[in-house]
Amino acid sequence: MRVIDLLNSNFISLTGDIGLNNSINSIFIGDLLSHVLAKASDEDILITVQTNVNTLAVASLINLSLVIFPDGVIVPKDVISRAINENIPLFKTNLSAKEVVLHLTKIGVK
Amino acid sequence: MFQNYKIKSHDMTEAGVVASTIKKYLTTKNIEKSVIRRVSIAVYEAEINVVIHSKGGEANVQINDNHIEVVFTDVGPGIDDIPMALSEGWSTASDYARGNGFGAGMGLPNIKALADEFNIMSSPDGTILKIGFII
User: Fold this and answer.
1) Euclidean distance between the first and final Cα of chain A, in Å?
2) Residue B20 falls in which region: left (phi positive, over 0), alpha (psi -120 to 50) or beta
3) Element (H or E) spanning B63, and its range?
């Protein structure tokens, strides 16, 4: 499964076409970045409300495929610009983190 | 390869540049992915520690064919209790650190777990953290 397969009415891509071809491993939810670094796996989707640039650094370092910001959290423009420069796809959604996980697992993300 | 990087206190704009630079370099050398991951995470955590906890410092990176050594030094205020700092979940993180997604108390434990070599010394004048990896 690839990031592009997740795009539907629930998600808005903040970064256009960036990273849509990334393949997906699984899902990780976390807001404490050291915890994400320690426990998330290569090509995971990260669901987080941590909307600062450090999330992008973490995503890049451990090769996360996608970052999803739930609950309609506002993502700063500088974070979006940097994500585009660093080829990290960002989605936003009004769904809660729980709803995102339920939806992703329903469509086949393990 | 030898490189020196200055690390500014409380400045997130370039935080992570040491780790990402090393990661890119190791990727070009076809180093095993699991090793690149360990090195990247450990260096990043150490770099962030200098940013969020210290008054500023630097990283000296030395990469040979089989070994990477990174020495982080800062100018204080030092770590009061190193054994506690090495225990998971214990944190002295400021509001600044927590507001940037850090402060889980996992930094030094993560680094020690990931590095092949780990040595730390600290006083109010500063901290020296030396980590090494076999590649």
Assistant:
1) 10
2) alpha
3) strand B57-63
ipTM of the complex, rounded to two decimals: 0.88
* Cβ-Cβ contacts under 8 Å, B34 against chain A: none
- Give me the amino acid identity at B99: G
The answer to whether B50 touches B56, Cβ cutoff 8 Å, is: yes
Q: List CB contacts of B129: < 8 A, sequence separation 6 or more.
A: B46, B49, B71, B72, B73, B111, B118, B119, B120
Question: Is the pTM of the predicted complex or chain greater than 0.90?
Answer: yes
- In chain A, which residues have their Cβ closer than 8 Å to the Cβ of B15? 54, 57
Task: Round to whole Å and give the CA distance between B70 and B73.
Answer: 10
CA distances from A102 to A95, A109, B98 (A): 10, 10, 29
CB atoms inside a 10 Å sphere around CB A101? 18
Provide the CA B97 distance to its chain's centre, in angstroms.
15
Is the backbone of residue A77 left (phi > 0), alpha (psi -120 to 50) or beta? alpha
Q: Are the beta carbons of B106 and A58 separated by less than 8 Å?
A: no
Average pLDDT for B78-107: 88
> Which amino acid appears at position A74 of this protein?
I
Q: Do A53 and B13 touch (CB under 8 A)?
A: yes
